């Protein structure tokens, strides 16, 4: 009777409960964390039973209660999360529900509401009816989500009412039996190569209706599937796997899981339990037995989890503990349903079927389940008294005893908690609780809600049951000890057993990726804590090495869809602290500090130096922090403070090099000027003598006499003239002091077997100096009459030119490091640390140095303050300016749970944050590091001259050696030649000496004339002129390197905000939503402008500015009761605006008549009626005294929250604006929607032209932005860029630039924000817009002073011209060398062409002069201007249609092309584009955007909105 009644009830229930399923398309998901976020958020919505989101198919399938939700509300919920949700099919599908009868097997003292609430929390349970008298529960479930057996597992107090089922016929029985009949199937799957193959198959097959579970193994190439045969067939599963692209066939015939025939029989024969019976079958005293098995063939944790999963699905197994180390398994099972042999077979059947299992110990009764005989002896009151269980929870993040007290205080008040003991040393808490009232999970969550990280110490740890009686219950030692041995103890020994590893993670794009990794890793067994840093791309994991190893952890991360590699050096995570310790007097003080600190947990190493008063400490930042260490030292009676770090980037400023080259140049110059003077004097005199000789036919002897009678040629003693002595004295300091660095560099080059400019310079100067000195000594020794020819003038001249070049080069390089100093100055220097009590009430505040902030500290940030470290908001709401990282001007709303970034600025609310990344781990420090690395790793391009001298040096050396040898040979063969050509040949010298001296002189002349002076000047002079010309044209180029580099650029990457666009929001359209006789456009503007004048939001400022311009006024009305809700909008009351409206009334009416036709929604109004209505309105407003208006301005949500209805027409036009990347804001006056304002960041007028010219120069143009893909696509289409990377992080900008460079392309990056600075530094040429941030300007190689994108074109053009000029210079330099060297070597002697040394010097000077003059020609450069380039390019520019633009999200290269357009759409697009180009020509000729509507705009419909003209 009872059953019939229940069946009837059930049918009634089914009719009333309508469960539906709907599939919604979701656009804008980029990675698995987006999927997870949607599933979490929507899954928690009231009335949603189940949600499955697919990234591949871009959709979400939701099973929901149609009484509580509709497809439309679910679509809106996904929309509000920032994704685009589209409802393709608004008709939902009904979902099959099922009814299960459960009986209660627990003692009488059971809270029914507890069972009911537990059941309703289970996913897939739609309804529950409980009958306490009959101790039954009738549960309605969705069989595709949850089965009866899963419910029984989750609520152990219930069991399937099998007796009822047997007697009962009809639907109830069928459904419940269907639940019990699950079948296991093994299939061989071929063609899998990696984990993404396995996850694809698991994802696809796991979604099929009727498939309960699937596990695909890559190693054994097989899939184990548990399915329900009444819902799906083997054939269907096979087909679906093959559809994914993998051949599959059945390996083992499907076998029924769960209950065999015997088991079903046994269950059927079990009598229906009476209340007393159920008392005896209470969970702690069931007749469970324990069997211990030895399992061979387990290799890793996945084997363990395979066996655990397979056995835990068996109904008669109540618990299983497997130890990989001991190769054993302890199984607790129901004696009435199974035997050890059944279990042994079940384990051997587990995939991949490779385990050999033997029974280790015979079946023993576990002591906790006493035999029935002992049960009878125990008085019954034992069972009815509440049970107590004990759990150990690991707690991270406790820093001191107040944390301990606050946890104990809060948790002890929770219902069901008997006692709690928290240990700070072991970082855990031991809690005794009543399992009927609370659970370890609930307690763990409660601790996490307090802001600590909590983890259950071990799921498989056997729970201690404590019955509160006087009776002692003997525990059987063997199993208990075994359990102790086998269960890894996480709590007490955590510090001994835990290790830390660092994993490099790639592919993270946003904070939800971080959350996804942290959450999923924490679930894995053996992992205690996870901390992921987004910018550094690094995860810090604390784990138990006996359970899990780093490679497996990185494998888990890879399975989540990210790249992961283990970083070998774990040391880098250790904190290092340098302290100044005052007050130490002797060695015992040192010992006292060291011994006290090393006893502290978390301090690895400590060394104190008495002489320097410094302490060096290595510690674990998770356990202890710098403040704790300082407190410890101070408690010993010493003073301790941080060693002040130099916060500037002095190591990169090239100051030392600049100093040394400046000194080198000045020394050389000081001695070079007199040498040059002497040389010029001698040249003039020699020339004079030559003309005399020519005109007066003097003999050689007379010439020599006259020559030697000159003052400088007078001999102090034979062989040493005044000239030579002075030259020698002036040359020595230059050679050894001025040239010191050249010697060092040349030595290093030769050591590495290379020859550069330095080698040639050192060779030429040293040989010239050495040869000249030797010649002088020989002449003095021989007391020669004729002064020898020396080359003392060569070293000073060479060194002067080259030292100047190097000095200028280093000055340019030094500029770059100022970027780092600027970046570092953004960091807050102090932080306000607050202490809270357990009720989150503020107890105290203290200001500390930012370096003393520890992980887990709670920091208060006031409005206008900078965030000192990265953290998570725990209290308060505010808007935060994060343009530092994202480059986007819009502030971001922050609420509890949001992450904040160091260096960003808090705008309006006071916030409390908990520090997550401190010191070198903060995002700002990472950006500093990125810029540093980019600047240090960017090797200066090997100067062309260096490359050339690599070949030139050996060649010249060979030529001079050849000259030497050839002349020696010629001399011995035919002495007359040498005799006739050797000036000042002295017969007193032996023949051999003469020949050798002559040969030496020729070879040295070769070395000297091949002086690389003009080669050295070729580049620096052109660069100096080029940079000078650039500066005059508003382009600052930092040194030669970027100037030389820019001509090689193949790809130009533009940032969006502030570069292509203005970077400040501007009102692009105002749409009036009511008839203008009710409220005029100007009245709306006056009200809106007044309301927004109190707002600090950039959008508010843009609206106010626009209203003031339109109304032609500087003052606005009065605003009271102003309230702002971050992320929604504002509300206020506005008065005193009548004056604004009367101010220029006729002008206003005229404008209104003009605008009415355009702006009014209801176009049916006749113009005449419009004008008259406006006049009426004007008269009315005169009559009315000051009126008060209630104003609401904000987004859709704000209007809905205030009870206003947004019709479809308004919604559509908002959506249209948003599609174009604008922000649409609604205005309501006196509870009526009356206006829509579209605000956008407008494109710079010259952007399109600049992009066009760059493309015509053969460059690829790319847009890269942190903004969303919609806005990016819209902007790209306006300027004609076809390749877009959207939603890109600063570190990904760097990676993207690197990626382009690895493809062999030279990249120029154009940007303006701090977030662009790492990429600017990384790019081959970084170009910063002058209106951008200081940091970007410092990091860039080229700075455009004017905010004009055509200067990007000019800078590349100037570079090309300069490089061309440098090449011409090299030609000049080389021609001179190629002609001069043979002459010097004496090749042309037979035809009388002899090179005197002074001619060599003259030629050398001439080549240098010609190079300098050639460089000066660059002064004539003119840069392209807007007017002349525009006229030239007018005909070819046209906007891109969205289908031509490929948008890539994040760092990924998988592009999202727009849907392919049909023929008609394409024709429409082309015609629009051509009309648009007409318009843009018209605009550009006026060069001003007309504020009045233009006559074409009516023809083109709303397309002119794309042009951002103000309407």
Descriptive keywords:
alpha+beta, six-stranded antiparallel sheet, nine-stranded mixed sheet
Write structural notes for this entry:
This protein has 1511 residues and is α+β, with helices and mostly antiparallel strands. The chain is 45% helix and 22% strand. The strands form twelve sheets. A nine-stranded mixed β-sheet has the order 42-54-53-52-43-50-51-55-56, sandwiched between helices. Strands 34-33-35-41-36-39 form a six-stranded antiparallel β-sheet, with no helix packed on it. Helix 28 (757-782) packs antiparallel against helix 35, helix 29 packs parallel to helix 36 and helix 35 runs antiparallel to helix 51 (1350-1384). The chain is elongated and about 145 Å long. It starts with a helix and ends in an 11-residue tail after the last helix. The relative contact order is 0.05. The C terminus is likely disordered.
Secondary structure blueprint with pairings:
Layout: H1 2-16, E1 19-27, H2 32-43, E2 48-54, E3 59-65, H3 71-80, E4 84-86, E5 93-94, E6 98-104, H4 112-121, E7 125-131, E8 136-141, H5 148-154, E9 158-160, H6 162-167, H7 171-180, E10 183-189, H8 195-206, E11 211-217, E12 222-227, H9 234-244, E13 248-256, H10 261-269, H11 275-280, E14 288-296, H12 301-312, E15 317-323, E16 328-334, H13 340-348, E17 356-365, H14 372-377, H15 381-384, E18 387-396, H16 401-412, E19 417-423, E20 428-433, H17 440-449, E21 453-456, E22 465-467, H18 477-486, H19 494-497, E23 499-506, H20 511-523, E24 527-533, E25 538-543, H21 550-559, E26 563-567, E27 575-582, H22 587-599, E28 603-609, E29 614-619, H23 626-635, E30 639-642, H24 655-696, H25 700-709, E31 715-717, E32 720-721, H26 722-738, H27 740-751, H28 757-782, H29 794-816, H30 818-825, E33 830-836, E34 842-849, E35 858-861, E36 870-875, E37 878-881, H31 883-886, E38 892-894, E39 899-900, E40 905-906, E41 911-917, H32 923-937, H33 944-973, H34 975-981, H35 991-1009, H36 1013-1032, E42 1035-1037, H37 1040-1045, E43 1051-1055, ...
Parallel strand pairs: 43-50, 43-52, 50-51, 51-55, 52-53, 53-54
Antiparallel strand pairs: 1-3, 1-4, 1-5, 2-3, 6-8, 6-9, 7-8, 10-12, 10-13, 11-12, 14-16, 14-17, 15-16, 18-20, 18-21, 18-22, 19-20, 23-25, 23-26, 24-25, 27-29, 27-30, 28-29, 31-32, 33-34, 33-35, 35-41, 36-39, 36-41, 37-38, 37-40, 42-54, 44-49, 45-46, 46-47, 47-48, 48-49, 55-56
Helix pairs in contact: 2-20, 8-9, 24-26, 24-29, 26-28, 26-29, 27-28, 28-29, 28-35, 29-36, 30-32, 33-34, 33-35, 35-51, 36-51, 36-52, 39-40, 42-43, 51-52
């Amino acid at each position: 009777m009872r059953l019939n009644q229940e069946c009837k009830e059930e049918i009634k229930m089914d009719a009333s409960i309508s469960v539906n399923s709907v599939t919604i398309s979701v656009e804008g998901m980029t990675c698995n964390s987006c999927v997870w976020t949607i599933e979490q958020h929507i899954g928690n919505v009231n009335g949603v039973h189940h949600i499955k989101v697919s990234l591949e198919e871009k959709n979400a399938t939701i099973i929901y209660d149609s009484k509580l939700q509709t497809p439309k509300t679910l679509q809106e919920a996904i929309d509000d999360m920032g994704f685009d949700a589209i409802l393709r099919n608004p008709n939902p599908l009904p979902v099959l529900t099922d009814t299960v009868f459960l009986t209660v097997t627990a003692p009488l003292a059971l809270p029914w509401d507890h069972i009911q609430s537990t059941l309703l929390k289970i996913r897939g349970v739609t309804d529950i009816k409980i009958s306490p008298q009959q101790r039954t529960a009738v549960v309605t479930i969705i069989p595709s989500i949850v089965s009866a057996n899963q419910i029984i597992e989750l609520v152990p107090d219930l069991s399937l009412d099998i007796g009822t089922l047997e007697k009962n016929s009809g639907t109830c029985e069928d459904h419940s039996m269907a639940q019990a009949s699950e079948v296991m199937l093994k299939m061989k799957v071929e063609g899998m190569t990696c984990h993404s193959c396995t996850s694809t198959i698991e994802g696809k097959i796991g979604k099929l209706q009727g498939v309960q579970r699937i596990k695909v193994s890559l190693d054994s190439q097989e899939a184990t599937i548990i399915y329900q045969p009444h819902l799906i067939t083997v054939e269907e599963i096979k087909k679906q796997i093959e559809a994914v692209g993998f051949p599959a066939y059945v390996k083992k015939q499907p076998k029924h899981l769960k209950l065999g025939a015997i088991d079903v029989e046994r269950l059927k024969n079990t009598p229906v339990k009476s209340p007393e019976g159920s008392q005896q079958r209470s969970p702690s005293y069931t007749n469970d037995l324990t069997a211990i098995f030895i399992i061979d063939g387990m290799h890793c944790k996945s084997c363990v989890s395979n066996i655990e999963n397979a056995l835990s699905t068996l109904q008669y197994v109540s618990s299983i503990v497997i130890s990989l180390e001991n190769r054993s398994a302890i199984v607790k099972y129901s004696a009435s349903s199974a035997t050890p042999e059944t279990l042994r077979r079940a384990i051997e059947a587990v995939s991949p079927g490779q385990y050999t299992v033997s029974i280790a110990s015979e079946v023993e009764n576990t002591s906790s389940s006493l035999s029935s005989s002992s049960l009878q002896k125990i008085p019954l009151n034992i069972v009815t008294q509440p049970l107590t269980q004990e759990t150990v929870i690991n707690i991270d993040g406790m820093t001191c005893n107040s944390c301990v007290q606050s946890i104990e205080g809060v948790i002890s008040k929770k219902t069901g908690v008997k006692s709690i003991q928290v240990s700070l040393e072991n970082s855990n808490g031991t809690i005794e609780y009543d399992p009927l009232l609370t659970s370890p999970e609930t307690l763990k969550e409660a601790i996490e809600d307090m802001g600590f990280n909590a983890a259950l110490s071990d799921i498989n740890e056997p729970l201690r049951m404590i019955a509160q009686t006087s009776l002692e219950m003997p525990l059987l030692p063997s199993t208990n000890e075994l359990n102790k041995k086998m269960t890894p103890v996480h709590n007490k020994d955590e510090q001994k057993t835990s290790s830390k590893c660092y994993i490099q993670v790639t592919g993270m794009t946003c904070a939800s990726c971080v959350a996804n990794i942290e959450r999923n890793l924490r679930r894995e067994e053996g992992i205690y804590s996870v901390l992921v840093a987004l910018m550094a791309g690094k995860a810090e994991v604390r784990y138990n090495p006996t359970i899990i190893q780093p490679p497996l952890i990185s494998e888990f991360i890879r399975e989540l869809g990210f790249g992961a590699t283990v970083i070998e050096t774990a040391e880098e995570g250790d904190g290092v602290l340098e302290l100044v310790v005052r007050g130490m007097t002797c060695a015992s003080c040192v010992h006292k500090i060291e011994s006290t600190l090393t006893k502290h947990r978390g301090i690895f190493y400590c060394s104190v130096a008495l002489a320097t008063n410094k302490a060096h400490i290595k510690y674990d930042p998770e356990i202890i922090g710098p403040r704790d260490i300082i407190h410890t030292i101070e408690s010993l009676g010493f003073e301790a403070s941080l060693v002040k770090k130099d916060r500037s980037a002095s190591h990169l400023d090239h100051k030392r090099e600049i100093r040394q080259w400046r000194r080198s140049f000045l020394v050389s110059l000081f001695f070079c000027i007199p040498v040059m003077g002497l040389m010029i004097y001698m040249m003039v005199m020699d020339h004079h003598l030559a003309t005399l000789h020519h005109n007066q036919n003097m003999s050689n002897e007379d010439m020599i006499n006259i020559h030697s009678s000159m003052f400088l040629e007078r001999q102090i003693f034979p062989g040493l003239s005044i000239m030579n002595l002075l030259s020698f004295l002036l040359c020595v300091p230059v050679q050894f002091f001025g040239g010191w660095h050249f010697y060092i560099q040349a030595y290093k080059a030769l050591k590495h077997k290379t020859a550069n400019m330095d080698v040639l310079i050192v060779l030429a100067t040293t040989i010239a100096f050495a040869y000249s000195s030797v010649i002088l000594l020989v002449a003095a020794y021989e007391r020669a009459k004729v002064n020898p020819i020396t080359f003392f003038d060569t070293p000073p001249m060479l060194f002067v030119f080259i030292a100047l070049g190097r000095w200028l080069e280093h000055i340019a390089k030094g500029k770059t490091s100022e970027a780092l100093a600027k970046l570092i100055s953004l960091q807050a220097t102090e932080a306000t640390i607050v202490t809270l009590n357990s009720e989150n009430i503020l107890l105290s505040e203290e200001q500390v140095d930012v370096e003393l902030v520890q992980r887990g500290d709670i920091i208060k940030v006031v409005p206008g303050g900078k965030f000192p470290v990265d953290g998570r908001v725990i209290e308060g709401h505010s808007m935060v300016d994060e343009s530092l990282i994202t480059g986007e001007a819009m502030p971001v709303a922050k609420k509890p749970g949001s992450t904040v970034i160091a260096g960003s600025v808090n705008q309006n609310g006071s916030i409390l944050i908990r520090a997550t990344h401190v010191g070198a781990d903060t995002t700002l420090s990472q950006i500093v590091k990125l810029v540093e690395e980019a600047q240090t790793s960017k090797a200066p391009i090997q100067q062309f001259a260096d490359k050339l001298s690599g070949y030139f040096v050996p060649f010249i050396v060979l030529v001079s050696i050849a000259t030497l040898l050839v002349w020696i040979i010629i001399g011995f063969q035919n002495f007359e030649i040498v005799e006739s050509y050797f000036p000042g040949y002295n017969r007193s010298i032996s023949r051999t000496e003469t020949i050798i001296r002559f040969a030496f002189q020729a070879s040295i002349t070769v070395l000297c004339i091949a002086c690389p002076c003009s080669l050295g000047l070729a580049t620096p002079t052109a660069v100096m002129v080029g940079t000078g010309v650039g500066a005059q044209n508003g382009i600052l180029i930092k040194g030669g390197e970027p100037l030389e580099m820019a001509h090689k650029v193949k790809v130009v990457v533009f940032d969006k905000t502030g570069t292509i666009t203005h970077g400040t929001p501007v009102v692009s359209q105002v749409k009036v939503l009511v008839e203008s006789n009710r409220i005029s456009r100007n009245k709306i503007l006056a009200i809106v402008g007044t309301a927004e004048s109190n707002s600090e939001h950039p959008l508010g400022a843009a609206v106010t500015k626009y209203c003031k311009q339109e109304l032609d006024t500087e003052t606005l009305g009065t605003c009271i009761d102003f309230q702002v809700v971050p992320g929604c909008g504002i509300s206020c009351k506005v008065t005193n605006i009548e004056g604004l409206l009367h101010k220029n009334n006729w002008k206003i009416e005229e404008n209104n008549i003009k605008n009415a036709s355009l702006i009014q929604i209801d176009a049916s109004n006749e113009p005449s009626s419009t004008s008259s209505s406006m006049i009426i309105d004007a008269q009315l407003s005169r009559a009315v005294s000051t009126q008060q208006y209630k104003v609401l301005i904000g987004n859709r949500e704000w209007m809905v929250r205030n009870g206003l209805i947004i019709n479809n027409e308004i919604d559509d036009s908002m959506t249209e604006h948003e599609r174009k990347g604008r922000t649409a804001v609604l205005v309501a006056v006196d509870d009526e929607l009356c206006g829509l304002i579209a605000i956008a960041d407008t494109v710079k007028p010259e952007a399109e032209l600049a992009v066009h010219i760059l493309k015509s120069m053969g460059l690829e143009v790319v847009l890269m932005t942190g903004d969303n893909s919609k806005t990016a696509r819209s902007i790209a289409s306006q300027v004609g860029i076809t390749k877009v990377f959207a939603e890109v992080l600063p570190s990904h900008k760097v990676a993207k630039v690197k990626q382009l460079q690895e493809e062999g392309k030279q990249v120029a990056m154009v940007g303006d924000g701090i977030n662009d600075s790492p990429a600017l530094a990384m790019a081959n040429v970084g170009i910063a817009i002058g209106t951008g941030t200081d940091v970007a300007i410092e990091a860039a190689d080229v700075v455009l002073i004017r905010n004009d994108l055509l200067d990007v074109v000019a800078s590349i053009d100037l570079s090309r011209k300069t490089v061309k000029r440098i090449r011409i210079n090299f030609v000049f330099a080389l021609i001179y060398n190629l002609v001069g060297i043979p002459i010097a070597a004496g090749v042309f002697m037979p035809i009388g062409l002899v090179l005197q040394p002074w001619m060599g010097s003259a030629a050398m000077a001439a080549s240098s002069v010609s190079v300098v003059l050639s460089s000066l020609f660059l002064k004539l450069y003119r840069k392209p201007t807007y007017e002349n380039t525009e006229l030239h390019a007018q005909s070819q520019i046209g906007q891109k249609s969205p289908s031509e633009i490929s948008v890539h999200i994040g760092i990924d290269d998988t592009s999202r092309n727009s849907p392919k357009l049909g023929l008609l759409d394409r024709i429409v697009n082309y015609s629009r584009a051509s009309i648009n180009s007409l318009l843009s020509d018209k605009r550009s000729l006026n060069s001003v955007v007309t504020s009045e509507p233009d006559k074409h705009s009516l023809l083109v419909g709303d397309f002119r909105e794309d042009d951002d003209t103000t309407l």
